[in-house]
Write a structure and sequence with these properties.
One of its GO terms (biological process) is kynurenine metabolic process. The protein is of the alpha/beta class. Helix content is about 40%, strand content about 15%. Strands 2-10-9-8-7-3-4 form a 7-stranded mixed beta sheet, with helices on both faces. It has a 4-stranded antiparallel beta sheet with strand order 11-12-15-14, with helices on one face. It binds 4'-deoxy-4'-aminopyridoxal-5'-phosphate and glutamine. The site of 4'-deoxy-4'-aminopyridoxal-5'-phosphate has 14 residues, from α4 and α8.
C-alpha cells in the first residue's frame, strides 16, 4: 500500500454506521433524513430517467449544462456577483468530492491548512492525503456564563492570527457547522476574511447546511465579502439541500482561476457525475429559484420542519439531564454527558476517549445511536471535548419519539 493510506484508516462513519446497523439501533447518528425528498424533485428524477437516451449517457465533464446554468443564476443572485456557469463552477460527487478536489488541487506538500474545530472529520485526512499539515484552532465556549447556544462558541481572533505562518495556504470553515450548529455572524466572517486578505490565504467554505438556520440566525456567504470572491471556494450539496443524500450531487463555486485547478483533479479521477441526478437537481433549483423566499420553497419548509424537531429533541435531552447546546443551524445538536452516571463496564478499554466508549455503550446496551464529538477534533484537542455526543434530528417524529422513549426509560 502507499504511504497515503497510513494514519487515515479510522473513519467514524464506517465504524458507527455499521455498529448502529448491527444492533438495529434507533439511529440519531449519521446525518441523513429518514424521510423522502420532496415530491417535486423525486418526480424530476423519474422524468429524467424516462427521458431520452442522453439522460443515460455521459454529459459535460465539469457539470451537466442545465445544472451549472441554474446554479450560477441561483447563487449569483444570493452572493451578489456574477457567476460564470462554465468557468466558476464544478459539479462533483457530493460535497465530499468538491472538498477532495479543492485539497488535491490547491494544497501542496508541507502547506499548512488551518481547520476550525469542531470540524467535519474529512478535512483532516484530505489535508494529509494532499501532503499538507492541518493546524487546528478550537471554537471555545465563552467563559463565565451557562452555555446554551452554539452562538456562545467563538473563535479568539488573536489565537487564530497566531496560527498563521509563512506556510499557511488556506483556512477551512463550515457554516452552519457540523456538529455544533454554529452559524457564523457577519463580524466573525469579516475577521476571518481580513486575515485571509492580509496573508493572501484561500478560504474553503463548506456551506452544505446553508438553508438550515433557526430563530433568525442568518447564513452569510464569506464569498460575498469584499476581497473574498477570488480566494473562496464555496462547497454545497444537493443531498443536504433536497434531503437526498444518496444522490451524491455537490458543487464547488469560486473564481475561474481557482476552479480550473479543481477541474484538473476531477477530469483525471471521476470525470463526471451521474447525468440523471444532475438533471433532477437542476430542475429542483429551477423550481426553487422561482419560489425563493416564499412559503412554498423547500428551503423554507425544511428549516421550518426542523425547527420543531430541534425543539422536541432539546426538550427531551433537557428532561433527562443531558445539557444540549442549542444549534443555530444545521441538523445536529451536541449534548453534555458529564452528568450521566453510568458504569461503562470497560475498564480494559482505556485507549478510547470517554465519548467513544459512551456511544458504544449507548448503542449496544440501550439501542440508541449517536456520534462521539471528539471525532470532530484533532487528537490534541479531542480530550477537552469528549464530554459531548452528537444527535441528528433530521428524522421522522416517530424516530425521535423512539429515541425519547429509550432516554426516558433509562434515566
Ligand atoms: N460537509 C459537511 C459539513 C457535511 O456534514 C457533509 C455530510 N453530508 C459533507 C460535507 C458531505 O456532503 P455530501 O454528502 O454531499 O458529500
Ligand atoms: N455528513 C453526515 C454526518 O455528519 C454523514 C457523513 C458520512 O456518513 N460520511 O453525519
Amino acid at each position: 500500500h502507499s504511504s497515503r493510506t497510513e494514519g487515515v484508516d479510522k473513519n467514524v462513519w464506517v465504524e458507527f454506521t455499521q455498529l448502529a446497523a448491527d444492533y438495529k439501533a434507533v439511529n440519531l447518528g449519521q446525518g441523513f433524513p429518514d424521510f423522502s425528498p420532496p415530491e417535486f424533485i423525486r418526480e424530476a428524477f423519474c422524468d429524467a430517467l424516462k427521458g431520452g437516451p442522453a439522460m443515460h449517457q455521459y454529459t459535460r465533464a465539469f457539470g451537466h449544462p442545465p445544472l451549472v446554468k441554474i446554479l450560477a443564476k441561483f447563487f449569483g443572485r444570493i452572493v451578489g456577483h456574477e457567476i460564470d456557469p462554465l468557468e466558476d463552477i464544478l459539479v462533483t460527487v457530493g460535497a465530499y468530492q468538491a472538498l477532495f478536489c479543492a485539497f488535491q488541487a490547491l494544497i501542496d506538500e508541507e502547506d499548512e491548512v488551518i481547520i476550525v474545530e469542531p470540524f467535519f472529520d474529512c478535512y483532516q485526512p484530505m489535508v494529509v492525503m494532499a501532503g499538507g499539515k492541518p493546524v487546528y484552532i478550537p471554537l471555545r465556549p465563552r467563559e463565565g456564563r451557562a452555555v446554551l447556544s452554539s452562538g456562545d462558541w467563538v473563535l479568539s481572533p488573536e489565537e487564530l492570527a497566531s496560527k498563521v505562518t509563512p506556510r499557511t495556504k488556506a483556512i477551512v470553515i463550515n457554516t452552519p457547522n457540523n456538529p455544533l450548529g454554529k452559524v457564523y455572524k457577519l463580524e466573525e466572517l469579516q475577521m476571518i476574511a481580513d486575515l485571509c486578505i492580509k496573508h493572501d490565504l484561500l478560504c474553503f467554505s463548506d456551506e452544505v447546511y446553508e438553508w438550515l438556520t433557526y430563530d433568525g440566525a442568518k447564513h452569510v456567504k464569506i464569498a460575498s465579502l469584499p476581497g473574498m470572491r477570488e480566494r473562496t471556494i464555496t462547497v454545497g450539496s444537493a443531498g443536504k439541500s433536497f434531503s437526498a443524500t444518496g444522490w451524491k450531487v455537490g458543487w464547488a463555486i469560486g473564481s475561474r482561476d481557482v476552479i480550473k485547478h479543481l477541474k484538473i483533479i476531477h477530469q483525471n479521477s471521476i470525470y463526471h457525475c451521474a447525468t440523471a441526478a444532475q438533471e433532477a437537481v437542476a430542475r429542483g433549483f429551477e423550481r426553487e429559484y422561482e419560489v425563493f423566499g416564499a412559503p412554498d420553497s423547500y428551503f423554507q419548509q425544511l428549516p421550518a420542519m426542523l425547527h420543531n424537531k430541534r425543539q422536541k429533541l432539546a426538550t427531551c435531552l433537557q428532561s433527562v439531564g443531558l445539557n444540549p447546546i442549542m444549534p443555530e443551524g444545521g441538523y445536529f445538536m451536541i449534548a453534555d454527558i458529564s452528568s450521566v452516571k453510568v458504569d461503562l463496564n470497560d475498564e480494559s478499554n482505556k485507549v478510547e476517549s470517554r465519548d467513544f466508549r459512551f456511544v458504544k455503550w449507548l448503542i449496544k446496551e440501550k439501542g440508541l445511536a449517536t456520534i462521539p464529538v471528539s471525532a470532530f477534533y484533532s487528537p490534541e484537542h479531542g480530550k477537552e471535548f469528549d464530554k459531548y455526543i452528537r444527535f441528528c434530528f433530521v428524522k421522522e417524529d416517530s424516530t425521535l419519539k423512539a429515541a425519547e422513549d429509550i432516554l426516558k426509560k433509562w434515566s
